[in-house]
Design a protein that fits this description.
The complex is a heterodimer. Chain A is built from two helices and six strands; from the N terminus they run ββαββββα. By secondary structure, chain A is of the alpha+beta class. Chain B contains 14 helices and 15 strands. Classes of the chains: A alpha+beta, B alpha+beta. Chain A: InterPro entries: Nucleotide-bd_a/b_plait_sf, Ribosomal_uL23-like, Ribosomal_uL23/eL15/eS24_sf.
């Protein structure tokens, strides 16, 4: 990726020659079932529909028919200190290819050790739930001690 | 005010009025040789859900008039259905399979349309008339494309310039209008039925139906999952069984057409073939289960309207033919085959919607299937190139399983496009194609006939329109409300909204426990989408306007205006004395 900003073209300037643009595209798994000729991407925020179309056509020779981009709000989370913060916004591109094109998202294996981590997270939740159920009804105890 | 009309809508147990037991032993001795059992009903959450829906369908069927049936479709939604919004000019890429699925249509594309038109006498009559009217049609083409300057229509003002598409549409519309006039006046001596037709320019063709077999969206899945955990008594009604979470949904679909011209007659066109109860062609119809938004189709909140270009009660209530513009298809950046499929999909959607509207005016609906086929002819044209369609409506049932498993299917016969003329050069028409003219004339010559031995309106009463209702107050109320609903004006008081800050601080994180809990999402009240159309406060009736009979009633009844939602309050209040 280039360290420069994408230079804005002004009339009269020499032709833009960018060797390492800031553009990137990442194939993502669609949240809903989509037709086999539709592919979803996360793209860099600067990209327009024309950029998406040209990127796929010119670099990868893909039979793009239509492209649509949409800006999505970043997830809103509460940090450990209790502040509400927002994660970065991101751009999603919905790209339709020709009818006979077929794409299925591959089964990406989890990174080594992730399965163990997920299992331990599940176990933690289970224990937490069991504890809350156990100590839910404690008459006489001030509310300060309640979770 | 929520009317508990169905047993599933919150009926309460009412204690008996008197303490005397109402059960009595029969004195007659009953002897039955074979025990009579009630029918065995399917058990399970899905069967129960379907039964509840069926109860509504039966209630809709029981209404006397056409307008009430169409109004009833809107009763579950105060703010309207979030329907897939289709118009005659939205044609995304690869649209035909979805259109076939959404209308359950089998399409046959040939050079010529085979059924009905291949009749020998019709063919010879049409070719004779085509050669007779050829010079008149040539004059029409010259007048519209060469002599007429259209300085008024095409004048460019400082505020607005016409696009190429708009200019072409003006030419097409004007030419089709003129050609229709020429042909009707030229053919009326040969085809007497053209004496009694209605020609409607720019008709308002709208149709609403439910399409089943669609995958639930992410939003819908989340909502369903949350409903499985509901234990609060206030919202207990919307509890959903976990087995139904992944099931397909019914998607409401609203079509608003943009045809140029349509011709109506008193009787329907003769059917091309009888309805086949087990049609093998139905199995070839593609199933496109994807969420409409992933196919670039928009959804809009609006009331369901079904209008085939005229109001109920019009004597000329069957379609003869309609003309659609194809100019917008040429601006699509796709290849020729895709453009052709676009024309097919526009014709299928428009024909189905128009016929569905006509069927609804005969008392059928999206829940009650037609008992006889209805036909229409459609021409898609830009003035020069013409493609013809013959559409037969065999089924209107598309909800739940019907969209994929119904044994019936609708039929569409399509012809490949051909040019009526090549060009207009130096005041002469070059290359007038007589075959295309013959096909247009055949459409006019096809005679609509009365269907003998068929009950045309089996689900309607003797008084099938609101205008026939004797009870004056009810008639006026229903007429006004039906017309107002179909106008789709926005509500005076807007739909309650969940703002982003409310979602973050009140719903997601519960960071404002001290804030006043008035909105529906803080008080666990049902959401605004669950509000029914009759769920509104009563309107006060001034004392001076109350009738003598009403005054004798209890004040809780007499001081409010009566409402006459479909199927309710059918009789006036008769003075009984207090």
């Amino acid at each position: 990726m280039s360290t420069r900003w994408y230079p804005l073209y002004q009339r009269g300037n020499p032709q833009l020659r960018v060797f390492l643009p800031n553009f990137w595209m990442k194939v993502v798994k669609p949240k809903e079932e989509v037709p086999p000729n539709v592919v979803h991407f996360h793209v860099s925020n600067e990209m327009t529909e024309y950029d998406v179309r040209n990127y796929l056509k010119k670099i990868y020779n893909l039979p793009v028919v239509a492209a649509k981009v949409e800006m999505k709000n970043g997830n809103i989370v509460k940090n450990i200190k209790g502040f509400v913060t927002k994660e970065n916004d991101y751009k999603v591109a919905y790209v339709t290819m020709e009818k006979n094109f077929k794409f299925t998202f591959p089964d990406v294996p989890l990174k080594p050790g992730m399965e163990l981590l997920k299992q331990s997270q599940k176990d933690n939740e289970k224990t937490k739930k069991a504890l809350t159920e156990k100590y839910q009804y404690r008459p006489g105890l001030p509310g300060w001690f309640q979770q | 005010m929520s009317i508990a009309r169905f047993p599933f809508r919150g009926t309460k147990w009412v204690p008996p009025m008197s303490s005397v037991c109402s059960k009595r032993l029969s004195s007659a001795v009953v002897s039955v040789s074979e025990p009579q059992y009630p029918p065995i009903e399917a058990q399970g959450p899905l069967a129960e859900k379907l039964r509840r829906k069926e109860q509504w369908h039966k209630w809709l069927k029981s209404h006397d008039t056409v307008e009430e049936k169409l109004y009833e479709l809107n009763m579950p939604k105060y703010y309207g259905w979030e329907a897939v919004s289709l118009n005659g000019k939205t044609v995304p890429y690869n649209f035909l399979p979805w259109v076939q699925f959404a209308t359950r249509t089998h399409i046959e594309v040939n050079d010529d349309i085979k059924p009905i038109y291949s009749d020998a006498s019709l063919d010879s009559k049409a070719s004779e008339l085509a050669s007779k009217l050829k010079s008149q049609v040539e004059e029409t083409i010259l007048f519209e494309y060469h002599y007429l300057r259209r300085r008024h229509e095409l004048s460019v003002t400082s505020t607005k310039t016409l696009s190429k598409l708009e200019t072409e549409d003006i030419y097409t519309k004007s030419f089709v209008d003129h050609l229709n006039r020429v042909l009707v006046s030229g053919l009326v001596s040969e085809a007497k039925h053209l004496n009694a037709i209605t020609v409607v320019p720019d008709p308002r063709v709208e149709a609403f139906w439910f399409l089943g077999g669609i995958n639930p969206s992410k939003k819908k899945l989340d909502e369903r999952k949350s409903r499985t955990k509901m234990t609060n008594l206030n919202v207990r009604k919307s509890f959903l069984d976990p087995s139904l979470v992944d099931g397909p949904v019914n998607e409401p679909i609203q079509f608003c057409g943009e045809s140029i011209l349509q011709l109506q007659s008193r009787y329907p066109l003769p059917s091309a073939e009888d309805i086949m109860e087990e049609d093998p062609r139905a199995k070839d119809i593609p199933h496109v289960p994807y969420e409409p938004k992933s196919l670039y189709l928009d959804k809009k909140f609006r009331h369901a309207t079904t209008i085939p270009g005229f109001w109920p009660g019009e004597p000329h209530e069957f379609g003869l033919m309609s003309f659609l513009s194809s100019n917008f298809l040429e601006s699509r950046p796709f290849d020729l085959e895709e453009r052709l499929e676009g024309a097919h999909s526009v014709a299928i959607l428009s024909s189905f919607s128009w016929l569905l509207g006509q069927a609804c005016y005969q008392g059928f609906s999206t829940f009650h299937d037609v008992t006889y086929p209805l036909l229409t002819q459609t021409a898609v044209t830009n003035g020069r190139d013409w493609s013809f369609y013959l559409y037969q409506l065999n089924t209107t049932l598309l909800h739940t399983k019907n969209s994929t498993e119904s044994p019936r299917c609708n039929l569409c016969w399509a012809s490949k496009p051909a040019s009526l003329f090549e060009s207009v050069n130096e005041g002469r028409v070059i290359g007038l194609n007589e075959d295309v003219l013959k096909q247009i004339i055949k459409m006019y010559l096809l005679e609509p006939r009365e269907r003998t031995g068929v009950e045309m309106k089996p689900y309607l009463s003797d008084k099938p329109y609101i205008a026939n209702i004797d009870f004056e107050e009810r008639r006026i109320w229903l007429e006004g409300h039906y017309k107002y609903l179909t106008s789709n004006r926005p509500r005076v008081q807007e739909k309650p909204e969940l703002y982003a800050w409310e979602y973050i601080y009140k719903v997601k994180f519960h960071d404002m426990p001290y804030a006043k809990k008035t909105q529906w999402f803080t008080t666990q009240q049902p959401p605004p989408d669950a509000r029914r159309l009759d769920d509104h406060p009563k309107i006060h009736k001034p004392n001076a306007l109350r009738t003598e009979a009403e005054k004798k009633l209890d004040k809780t009844l007499s001081r409010f205006e009566r409402t006459f939602y479909p199927g309710t309050n059918k009789n006036p209040i008769v003075g009984t004395g207090k």
